[in-house]
Design brief:
The complex is a heterodimer of chains A (about 325) and B (about 375). Chain A has about 325 residues and is mostly helical. Chain A contains 14 helices and 4 strands. Chain A has a two-stranded antiparallel ribbon with strand order 1-2. In chain A, strands 3-4 form a two-stranded antiparallel sheet. Chain B is an alpha+beta fold and about 375 residues long. The chains are: A mainly alpha (about 325), B alpha+beta (about 375).
């Protein structure tokens, strides 16, 4: 692109592409390009841009589905700030983002280390670790409701055999979220596989060099392996966080549909409360305001993670 | 003799290493298996529960393997066998004809004419204990599948299974048809505005579904009147999505440009290059997309929850949730249905293991 005839164009430090010279050729190229892109372009306007604008508009209205929306300005947003349930749901969600996501990543990394050991039968072990992650969410959640059944569940039975009086799990407000975290960790096979492929990409020459220099196992892990997989950690942290902010199906199944958030609102996550407002209470405007706040929170978290990670992430090459 | 000393020095650590290596390998296996229990046991528990009888499910404490009453044939009927303590204190193996309100009517299988009636409780002692044996109740599967989450509306898990399959198949078709040309344009065509559009499509990955959910729902449900049909779940897949476009574009970029240029020289247009050269070379990535779209559509819960209202249109995910939400939960049948729900994915995994793992590495786990 080093064309001395074309002056560089910049806005706020961002490099802009060189100005398009419209010829018959470029026009034809554009036509072909847009034709190929047309499925996405139509979809983008119909299922992304238009709904975004409409939901932004709804968020400033009172809208009870059947009646026309009524403009109320910032009322929905102000109401949210005095809505106790809103803060409960936000709090529950942040709990999962701050505890479940890093815990899941840490555990996945440890599992990947195990599956990267040079022992026989690894192919089989890898399948075992991976298989739960492809069990459909609803099936997995129901399975855990059964496993963690306070009276006849397998987990409490085994705990009782060890002399431990197991908790009521999904029926206890203090244990419902830890139970859901366990369920999430059971299905973390995908993340383990990603870490495993990252571990296999760490150059053996680096490890061997460190070994020659007398670095022990932990030093090699800390100074070589962990920095080498740090881009994977960042990627998983961001996708995990975005996913966790939208945590819904598992909580819906635990709530049994008509008892969302039980017990005592401990599983009332942000998306669950949003769904409740939109489709059960039919407060579409209020729910839209919640959706936009969620979007802003996700954006802020992502940018923050990217900013902070600059210092901790190592990109080879 | 320095030479000999050297030899033994070299040999010694080799010999000494062996027990250590063995120990390490044992420790490795031990750790992997110990942690592996966390993944394997719940999965096995789902399978084992699916094979249990109704009473056995609620047995406390539970046993690992499914047990069922031993049954014997008496006068052409299969009756459960019990150990009964008679008034004389002797133990007899009798088949139960019926047990009503604490009174059992038994028959001696060896002598079908002999009918005996016993109160099951004598003082504090239970006098009749069922004789159990390990037996897998395969009937749970057809029983679970032929019942619906709500009795009487004519919808069974077979119907849910079919609905899920229809939605998944059309989603796969839509995804393949719509994403490939878009990805080709981003990978191979040069036209003004392309890079800007690519940034926009990547940015849509960050947008939570909740933001667009309500207008999309109102558009399909109220405006088009497509509520309670599969269309709102299938139609959007025909309009491409960022994840699949990105995945396909990465692959298309690895196809040698020279092959396309050669075709161009021969007078082929872009559509011909796309359909006759690029697509046939892309079967691995198309397989990945197929598998992952199936997985996603099969697993999807929120979409069906929003749009499907009547039980005859439920998907497996929705039906299972509905079944679980009922007052009395039949855990063995619920686990049988959950197993059937999981089975197509597990089968796909074993047939296309490489495709699966490749897809996960490329896209990250879409959870």
């Amino acid at each position: 692109m080093d064309n001395p005839g074309v002056p560089e164009r910049k806005i706020l430090g961002f490099q802009l592409p060189p100005k398009v010279v419209w010829t018959k050729r470029t026009k034809a190229d554009l036509r072909t390009g847009l034709l190929f892109l047309s499925p996405w372009l139509i979809g983008f306007f119909a299922f992304t841009l238009y709904p975004m604008l409409v939901s932004l508009y709804y968020s400033f209205t009172i809208y009870h589905s059947k009646r026309a929306p009524e403009w109320v300005g910032l009322e929905n947003y102000l109401k949210l700030f005095s809505d106790q349930k809103f803060f409960i749901s936000l709090n529950n969600t942040i709990y999962m983002v701050v505890i479940a996501v890093p815990l899941g990543l840490f555990a996945s990394f440890l599992c990947a280390l195990l599956l990267n050991l040079k022992v026989r039968g690894q192919a089989f072990y890898r399948v075992v670790y991976f298989l739960p992650s492809i069990v459909p969410t609803v099936a997995g959640t129901i399975l855990f409701l059964w496993l963690l059944n306070p009276q006849v569940g397998l987990v409490n039975t085994l705990l009782a055999r060890l002399g431990i009086d197991g908790p009521n799990w999904m029926a206890d407000p203090n244990w419902a979220k830890p139970a859901l975290i366990l369920l999430g960790m059971w299905g973390m096979g995908g993340t383990i596989i990603i870490y495993l492929s990252g571990l296999q990409d760490v150059p053996t020459s680096l490890i061997e060099a460190a070994e020659l220099d007398g670095a022990n196992w932990f030093q090699r892990l800390w100074y070589i392996t962990i920095p080498m997989v740090s881009p994977i950690t960042l990627f998983n942290l961001i996708t995990g966080m975005i996913g966790m902010f939208q945590y819904f199906a598992q909580a819906y199944v635990v709530g049994g549909g008509d008892n969302l958030g039980r017990p005592l609102n401990s599983t009332l996550f942000y998306s669950v409360y949003l769904y409740q407002n939109a489709f059960l209470f039919l407060k579409m405007g209020y729910a839209s305001a919640m959706a936009w706040i969620l979007f802003v929170i996700i954006l802020c978290f992502t940018l923050l993670l990217l900013k902070v990670s600059d210092r901790f992430t190592y990109y080879a090459g | 003799m320095p030479g000999k000393a050297m030899d033994t020095d070299l040999a010694a650590p080799n010999k000494a290493l062996k027990p250590i290596q063995l120990l390490r390998s044992l420790l490795g296996h031990g750790l992997i298996i110990f942690v592996g229990m966390f993944f394997a046991v719940p999965f096995l528990w789902m399978l084992l529960t699916a094979f249990k009888s109704d009473q056995d499910v609620f047995r406390s404490p539970p046993r690992w393997l499914p047990y069922d009453n031993v049954r014997v044939e008496v006068n052409g009927k299969k009756l459960p066998l019990y150990t009964v303590k008679t008034e004389l204190g002797t133990l007899r193996q009798l088949a139960a004809i019926k047990i009503v309100e604490g009174v059992g009517t038994f028959v001696d299988p060896a002598n079908p004419a002999e009918i005996l009636t016993y109160k099951l409780q004598r003082g504090k002692e239970r006098i009749a204990e069922p004789i159990m044996e390990v037996s897998f109740r395969w009937e749970n599967f057809p029983d679970a599948m032929s019942r619906g989450s709500r009795p009487g509306v004519g919808a069974s898990f077979w119907v849910y299974f079919r609905n899920s399959l229809i939605i998944a198949i059309f989603s796969i078709i839509g995804t393949l048809v719509s994403n490939t040309p878009v990805a080709y344009a981003f990978a191979r065509l040069k036209f003004p505005g392309r890079d800007l559009l690519f940034v926009i499509i990547l940015a849509t990955m960050m947008l939570p579904f909740q933001v667009t959910m309500i207008p999309i729902y109102l558009f399909f449900n109220d405006f088009l009147g497509w509520g309670d049909s599969f269309l709102p779940l299938i139609i959007p897949t025909f309009f491409a999505n960022a994840w699949d476009v990105f995945l396909l574009r990465q692959f298309f970029k690895t196809i040698p440009e020279e092959m396309c240029d050669a075709a161009r020289v021969d007078g082929a247009n872009e559509w011909q290059i796309f359909t006759r050269i690029v697509l046939p070379l892309s079967t691995p990535v198309l397989a990945t997309i197929t598998v992952f779209t199936f997985l996603w559509a099969w697993n999807d819960f929120t979409g069906p929850l929003l749009f499907l209202h009547s039980p005859r249109n439920f998907t497996m995910a929705l039906g299972l949730q509905d079944f679980q939400g009922q007052k009395t939960i039949v855990w063995n049948q619920l686990m049988a249905a959950a197993t059937v729900f999981t089975l197509p994915i597990v089968i796909t995994f074993f047939f296309a293991q490489k495709t699966f793992i490749q897809g996960i590495k490329l896209t990250g786990s879409k959870e």
